[in-house]
Structure formats: C-alpha cells, structure tokens
Design brief:
single chain; Aminopeptidase; Elongation Factor Tu (Ef-tu), domain 3; six-stranded antiparallel beta barrel; 37 strands
Length: 750
C-alpha cells in the first residue's frame, strides 16, 4: 500500500513538472537589469533586419534564468506554463538599416537599404555625413562615416547629388582601396547602422535612433522581470522576433508553429502610403508622446472592440490611458498568403515622435504604462517602479597641465571634444590655454581671442599665425509657451545634417539633450528643404512649458551643438565634428611646443580667434586694433580647412587635394588670393624641410582676409578635409603633423 502511494505521488510530481516547468513557474527567478537600463542597451545595439544576433544575445543574457531558446531565424523564445489559452506575446527586434552591396575600387562601401521599399521619409538623407558602424563577419563593429556634400563647394553647382538617392550613399572607412576595406573586415552583406546612443530629455522623454524599434523589447523583458509566474494561467510564449521590417518572417514562423489562441504584438505603429511617387492618401499615426498606451487599428475613429476593448477595460481599472491610433496590419503583403491571426489579436504600442529618424522620441511614462497594462492583464496588480529624473550631462573637464610635448593627434582629441560655437568659445579657449607648454603666457583680448607672442625683435617682420576657436551650431533665440526652443544657425551648413538628430543645449548647469525638430510636412512626398538666411528651427528638450524649460537652466542666448566623438578610422584617418578649425588649433599648439620659449631674432604672434564662422569677427577686431597701434603684421598665415573634393560626391573640377598627401597652401578661396611667388616660397620651405605639401583652389573664407585692408599679406594654409561642416568631418592625421611642422618652420624661417 505504501509503495503504491509513493508511486502515485511520484507520478503526480512528474506530471506537475512537465505541465509547469520548475524554471518557468518559480516566482523567485530574477531577470537582471531595469527598464531604463534595458532600453539604453537595446538602443545602443544595432540590429538591422536579418542581422539581429547582437541584440538577440543581449536579450538572451537577461533571460538566462528562463532558459530561452533560439530558432533558426534567430527568434528568441521563452515558454511559461502549459494548457489553454495559449498566448503569443511578440516584440520585434529589428530596425531599418543597410547592407553593403558593393565596394568600390577607392574603398567606399555602397549600400542597399533594408527594407528595400516602404515608407521611410528622409531615411537616407538623415544618414548623410553621419557616423555609422559596420559589422564584420567576426561580429565586431568598425567605425565609418557616410559621405556628405561640403557646403563650401556647393556654390555654382546647380545640380549637386541628391542625398536621398541611395546611389549617392557611400560609406567611408578611411580606406583607399577595396582590398584595404576588406582587410578591415567590411564585405558585401556587412550590415551598416547609424551610430547611436539613448538620451534622456526632460519630463521623461527619451530620444535616440531605433528607440521605436526597441521599446517593445524593453517592455516585454520588463514584463518578465515583474511577473509572478505562479499567478499565470494557461501557457504563454514570449518571443522576440526577427525580420519584421522585411516581411515579418519571424512572426509568421511562430504563428505557423504555435497556432495561438491570443496574440499580443508589442511594437511600433506602421504608417501607410505609397513607397514611390505621389500618394493620394497617406495615413500616419497621429498621437504624440505622453498619450499612454496605443492600440494599432486601421480605423482609429471607431471605438475599440473585442480583445482590444477588454484590455481597455483592464487599463481603466488601473488608471492607464489607452487610445486608438492608425497602423497598418501586422502582417505585410508577401509572395505567399499570410498565416491566420486569431480573432483575439491586438497591437499595443506607444507614440514615437519623428519615427525612424535618428532623433526618434518616446515618453518613458507611456512605456511604463504599457508594461503595467500587460502585467495587469496577465496576472493583475502592479507596482510602478520609480524612474529617477534625467540629470544634465557634464561638460568635458579641462585637461591637466602638460609637462611633456604631446603628439598633434593627442592635442586634436582634446580640443575636438570641447564644445564652443561662435560667441561661446570660452571653454575651447581655456582648453587651448591649458594645452600650451608651461612657459607660455598667453593673453585674452576684448574680443575673446587668445594671443601668444614669441620672440622680441623689432626689426624682423611681424608674422601672425592664426586659427579660429569656434564651431558651427545654433543659438537659442526664444522659448515658446509650449516649451519648444526657437533657434537660429550659427554658421552655414546643410539642414539635414542636424535637423532630425539629437542635439545638446549648453547651459551653466550642464548639457541638456534635445531633439532638432524636422520642419512640418517632413514625412510627405512633396517635402522640400527651405533654403536661405533668416530661417529658424525648433528644439524639443522634453519640457511642455516655458517655465519647465527655464527650470532646466535654459535661457535665450544659450548655444546648441550636436554630439560628437573622436573616432579613428582605418590607417591614419580620423573623423569628428569640429575638425574645422580644431585641427588648426592643435597645429598651432604643437608648433608652440616645438618652438620653445626662446625664439630669437623673430617677431611672431600666435592667435586663436573667435567668431570666424559668423564673418571673421575676432580676427577683424584684432586687425583693426593692431592697425590703430601701428602693429599690423606683414604676413598672416591663416590656418583653416582646405575643403577637399576628395570625396565620392564632389566634382574634382576644383579643391582636388587628396587626404594624406600633405598640408595645403590655400592659394585661392572666396576671400583671398595668395601672391603666386609666396605660394612657391611656402612650397619651397616645405620641400627643404621634407614636409609633404599641396596647393589649390577651394571655397569659403579665412581669417587672414580681415588683415588685407590694413596692408598684410594673407598666406592661407590648411589641410584637406572631407564633408565640411557636417558631423562626419574627416582628415588624415599625417596632414595634421605636416601642418604643425610647417607652422614651426614658418615661425623660425619665413
């Protein structure tokens, strides 16, 4: 009798273990991390359709305690419980992006978009001149930059390449040949995605590329973190599916395999419209961040019904706002009939502003409401986690005072990481001061220029070497009642390099991230960019009122930039925004170190000027003051960018100076023509000192032109640079070395 009873108990235990796996129903199993941490990690991990393995690994790592499985398409699957009803909860993991389709003989990567068709307004254009990452076959990601037009070379060019045409998209790794690009790991089929980070704005808005493709993943992982598995009923298959953008292949596979009774799809709303040509009826989701949980439907005017109405009632019981919004069907048209969706199917989402742009924005309250609704539906009751308020980002600290001469590239890394637009150069000026040798005692004039005098001879010709401190950006003109900032450009640049991207608003309390809003109608086929002076734009920092903006420390007159990071490309190439004119700044600092404190029988001045991008402001004031004092320099060597046509998008008709072939005598530009005999003298000095040199004609102006009217001769020098005034400015560091060397030689020998 006892043996029979023991046998029965054993069978009961075994059956229970099969029906309710111990792992899945043990309420003490923990999913590590947090909702905010997951979202940041998932956004920073590219997952172009068909190439989602990196993000799948991130998700599997968090769900390790739940023993997730992975099918042959890469879908990550967790199964909880058993019996009916059988629910399928799905979140897509992929994002739109590119794969390499060809590598040119010059080493540029040409691209094909994934998905290859569909409504993605300005997607190609907003990649122009942006830092990107390319995945190699070994799973490593290497940096690159998408080629972009240089604004200095556009005047007189009536039909420049259209950046929205994919045939004009070339990724620059810094390679000079196809073999070099392949040796770095790039190849046909390598996925390419824009470099990204998730930024916290005010009032719980978060912005970053692909956040609309990741909120569903973060929500479902957070759901698994919160659930008490002992309170579930039936069976739940939770899946993170691949290739949703390119045919919903992962989702279709799971529908075919499981034939679920219910489907809850958690992911972005999908707009409708003709992919090519004019579209007679374009339909877009209309809700804005802060609207709560959204239900994707074809007719958002009609009341919710069926399963969606049940969820609406659950939400109402817990004070969660729910609204209908437009979305295309979950399963797109394909070559084969789609597997059937059960009657109890619902598409849950949250609003995304600027969808599928680098500045896509969500509201974290909406995301938490979404998780709470799912939790309440599956098991009832929930506790909303506390999410700390966003903190201002810190400005980079000043470098320590150096005792040994650093390399020119080390100097360049320091000065490029500092932000300072025209009229706001103080931090850059102090960084330059700090990087000068200990013996240097520079002064600052009333215009904010930093001035270092070398030598003391009154007989030698006065020689001035000049570089400017400022970078392009925006200025806050006013704060609107709804909390948007009205801003105007500081300097000239192409709008799509910055609008639709993350920006930084610089305040006395630190940096506040924001979003450069795209103009109205940006998502319509008829959209065109407005051109010309006097245009203003809008920036969203997450606040919904003028008072909310002011609480962040933002006032009219604050300046705005876009994030930047110094990145080494292949070989000796590097990219970062503000190479113009931080390369010149670094070259003069390096020259000062090389010259030392005892420059005998010379009369040399180094000046780092302000406001060049707004019209040579600091240089003009210095030139007028010295002229009034009778101290006009005889020769001015203005060191600034030689905007180069060394790019797949530019005409080689002029500005043809290859990167890596040496510094450039900027013989002709829009502000100055160097006397031909002095061009030859500069080239002769370079040859005698074994410094690679070039010369040519380019666009733009230079600080030396401010001294011409007072009798100076302007001998402009530069370095070849690709993609001027863009986030992806690129140089060859060998040219920086040569520039620093020729500046030293000129100070000693000219």
């Amino acid at each position: 009798m006892l043996k029979s009873l023991a046998a029965c108990l054993l069978w009961i235990i075994l059956l229970a273990s099969f029906a309710h796996p111990a792992q899945a129903h043990s309420s003490h199993l923990k999913v590590p991390g947090s909702l905010a941490g997951d979202l940041k990690a998932f956004v920073s991990t590219p997952a172009v359709s068909g190439y989602e393995s990196g993000l799948a690994s991130e998700i599997r790592a968090r769900l390790r305690a739940l023993s997730p499985s992975t099918d042959r398409l890469g879908d990550v699957i967790v199964t909880l419980g058993s019996g009916s009803p059988h629910r399928l909860i799905v979140a897509p993991v992929d994002e739109p992006g590119y794969v390499v389709s060809h590598i040119t003989s010059q080493g540029y990567l040409q691209l094909q978009r994934l998905p290859q068709f569909g409504l993605l307004p300005l997607f190609n254009e907003l990649y122009a001149a942006q830092p990107v990452r390319i995945e190699t076959a070994s799973g490593q990601w290497i940096p690159g930059v998408v080629a972009g037009l240089s604004i200095h070379l556009m005047p007189g060019r009536p039909h420049p390449p259209n950046p929205n045409e994919i045939g004009n998209m070339d990724v620059d790794l810094g390679a000079s040949s196809a073999a070099e690009a392949r040796a770095a790991g790039a190849d046909v089929l390598s996925p390419v995605a824009i470099d990204r980070k998730l930024y916290e704005l005010a009032d719980r808005e978060w912005a970053g590329a692909a956040v609309g493709d990741r909120f569903g993943d973060a929500a479902v992982v957070e759901l698994l973190r919160r659930l008490n598995f002992d309170r579930l009923h039936g069976s739940d298959t939770i899946a993170f599916v691949t290739q949703q953008w390119t045919g919903a292949h992962g989702f279709e596979r799971l529908l075919t395999r499981y034939k679920p009774d219910e489907v809850i799809y958690v992911g972005r709303l999908r707009p409708a419209g003709a992919p090519f040509g004019p579209a007679p009826s374009l339909r877009f989701p209309a809700r804005t961040p802060g609207s709560g949980v959204l239900v994707g439907v074809s007719n958002p005017v009609a009341p919710l019904s069926g399963f969606a109405a049940e969820l609406e009632q659950v939400a109402a019981q817990h004070g969660i706002p729910v609204a209908a919004d437009f979305s295309l069907p979950l399963l797109p048209p394909s070559y084969l009939p789609a597997p059937p969706l059960p009657a109890r199917t619902v598409h849950l989402a949250i609003s995304t502003a600027w969808p599928s742009t680098p500045a896509e924005t969500i509201n974290i309250h909406d995301l938490n409401d979404l998780v709470t609704l799912l939790e309440d539906y599956l098991q009832g009751s929930s506790v909303e986690p506390r999410i700390p308020p966003a903190q201002a980002l810190a400005n980079p600290p000043l470098p320590a005072r150096l005792q040994v001469a650093p390399s020119p590239e080390a100097l360049l890394k320091w000065v490029t990481q500092v932000y300072g637009t025209s009229g706001h150069e103080a931090a850059v000026r102090e960084t330059v001061r700090q990087l000068l040798p200990p013996w240097a005692k520079p002064s600052t004039d009333a215009a904010g220029n930093l001035i270092l005098r070398l030598g003391s001879s009154s007989v030698a010709p006065r020689i001035l070497l000049d570089a400017h401190l400022d970078e392009i950006g925006y200025d806050v003109r006013s704060i609107q009642p709804d909390g948007l900032l009205s801003v105007a450009p500081l300097g000239g640049f192409l709008p799509y390099y910055y609008l639709g991207h993350i920006c930084f608003v610089h305040t006395e309390q630190g940096i506040r991230p924001g979003v450069m809003e795209l103009p109205k109608g940006w998502n319509l086929p008829s959209f065109t960019w407005l051109r010309g002076p006097g245009l203003t734009y809008l920036v969203d920092v997450g606040a919904d009122s003028k008072a909310g903006v002011e609480r962040l420390g933002i006032r009219p007159g604050a300046f705005i930039t876009v994030p930047k990071e110094y990145r080494r490309l292949l070989g000796t190439r590097a990219t970062v925004r503000s190479m113009d004119d931080r390369v010149g700044d670094a070259a003069l600092i390096a020259a000062a170190w090389a010259l030392g404190p005892n420059l005998k029988n010379r009369n040399v001045t180094f000046i780092w000027t302000t406001g060049e991008e707004l019209g040579l402001v600091g240089a003009a004031k210095a030139a007028a003051r010295w002229a009034a004092e009778g101290k006009t320099p005889r020769y001015v060597f203005a060191i600034d960018t030689f905007v180069s046509a060394d790019s797949p998008l530019e005409s080689k008709r002029f500005a043809d100076a290859p990167l890596g072939a040496g510094f450039v005598v900027r013989a002709v530009d829009n502000s100055n023509i160097v006397p031909w005999n002095l061009v030859q003298k500069a080239l002769r000095l370079a040859r005698e000192n074994h410094i690679p040199a070039q010369y040519g004609v380019t666009g733009g102006g230079n600080d030396g032109a401010a001294f011409l009217r007072y009798g100076s001769v302007d001998i402009a020098l530069g370095w070849p640079m690709r993609y001027s005034h863009s986030p992806g400015e690129e140089i060859d560091t060998r040219d920086l070395d040569g520039l620093a060397h020729i500046a030293e030689v000129i100070a000693r020998e000219w």
